[in-house]
Model the fold of this input.
Amino acid sequence: MAWYPRLGLPIPFELINTAFAEAGQPRDALASAQDLSEWLRVNREQLDVPVPAASTAADLLEYRQLRQALRDAFTAIVGGTPPNASDLKLLNEISALAPQFAQVEWTRKTRRMRMDNVSENAHVNTLGAVARSAIELLSGPDVDRIGRCHRPGCVLLFLKDRRDSQWCSATCGNRARVARHYARSRPR
Done:
């Protein structure tokens, strides 16, 4: 898998941001089924379901379709418009593929809800987990925190930690500030 700008964001952003720009050139960290398997392995803790041992070309196509629908939906929200109905339909259809039920885990130190999947298909379960996470984000209070990086050349989407956040990471913020300083100090 080609390096991608993993920012430790909720899983829908991690999927969206596998399509990124590097030195102004578009890159895709999900270029092969093997790349998808590696991405699932790296992000398995956020999925809360067992990841498949290997991915197929068909699995890759489904993840790329979900990625595009999520990018389009989140970009619409950043632009102040509602997501396209077809993107939401795809998201709901994918989520419905992996039926699940809630389980409670209660220990002396922690309490949490865990979702168990009825499906035996690990690929369906992981794809459904990404879709459910996106649905929770789109239907919850954090939807207003979705942002697009303002650094020229960066195409990443992120979850703002403050209302005025402009960059997906400190690296992008530093690069944007350096570029502004250089533009101001350059002789004309």
